[in-house]
Amino acid sequence: MAIDLALLQQHATADGLPPVEEWHPDFCADMDLVIRADGTWVHEGGEFRRPALMKLFSRILRLDDDGCYYLVTPVEKVRIQVEDAPFVILAAEVRDDSVVMVTNCEEVITLGREHPMRVRAAHGGASEIPYVLVRKNLWARLHRNVFYQLVELAEQRTEQNVEGMWLQSQNEWFCLGSL
């Protein structure tokens, strides 16, 4: 299945995301594309070597009500596999009263009401880790290095009846993990 890259380029503007929630094409096919739990994109057994293409595809990614992930254009809808979360937070820094994060697809988000953090079971269910909402219902897991960096900034406290390590951003408290 080949996605029309020229059509994608038309909708991939620098100042906003394509309106994938408004597009309702018929399902076309399954694509041999897997986003691994570590954030690696694998197509037909080989790792993506073109970051620009990965970034472009990430902009048309959607999680539908059926629990499946799709790459969606105005005329095509192809299903892909996501092992855990489609994004990984690779960097974080404090700016004023906010924690600003960068995903593996170079999307910059600020931890807060629009981009909350939730702790849930990781891929495989062995442990619970924090995830951050990137957009719509697409989440990013924290890279281990970022997690430890944020733990250094966190406070041990009780919020929302949970004793744990809490991080403040944009006057909101977010749990990194319970104690």
From TrEMBL:
<feature type="domain" description="DUF1285">
    <location>
        <begin position="18"/>
        <end position="85"/>
    </location>
</feature>
<protein>
    <submittedName>
        <fullName>DUF1285 domain-containing protein</fullName>
    </submittedName>
</protein>
<dbReference type="InterPro" id="IPR023361">
    <property type="entry name" value="DUF1285_beta_roll_sf"/>
</dbReference>
<feature type="domain" description="DUF1285">
    <location>
        <begin position="86"/>
        <end position="176"/>
    </location>
</feature>
<dbReference type="InterPro" id="IPR010707">
    <property type="entry name" value="DUF1285"/>
</dbReference>
<dbReference type="InterPro" id="IPR048342">
    <property type="entry name" value="DUF1285_C"/>
</dbReference>
<dbReference type="InterPro" id="IPR048341">
    <property type="entry name" value="DUF1285_N"/>
</dbReference>
<dbReference type="Pfam" id="PF06938">
    <property type="entry name" value="DUF1285_N"/>
</dbReference>
<dbReference type="Pfam" id="PF21028">
    <property type="entry name" value="DUF1285_C"/>
</dbReference>
